[in-house]
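Q: Structure tokens for this one, please.
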Amino acid sequence: MNDKIKIVVDASFEAEVVNSSQVVLVDFWAQWCGPCKTLMPVLDKIADEYDGRVLIAKINIDENQKIPSKYGIRGIPTMLLFFEGVVQATKMGALSKAELSAFIDANI
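A: Here is the predicted structure, written as tokens:
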């Protein structure tokens, strides 16, 4: 996994996502999720392409249940785009790089 992707947990979510001064794309995922695995190389490329503009973060829903519950995550992969602590947009499913770039560009 790309070292530009931040792994967050329930305990660090507020400090690293909600209180972040930059736009944060959070990927809610699980190890057993096939579409989540398909999305991983796309997120690696996005992390490089948007470095300095958008922080890419991942939170495992099996190991961290408080935050997914708080944001009503019902299916994975789900991505929430945060800015100034507020969810600006939501996208579900495994996306291509072009689709994910278009989603980010339309919302930042």
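A few notes: Strands lie at 5-7, 23-29, 54-60, 78-83, 86-92. The chain has a mean pLDDT of 96.
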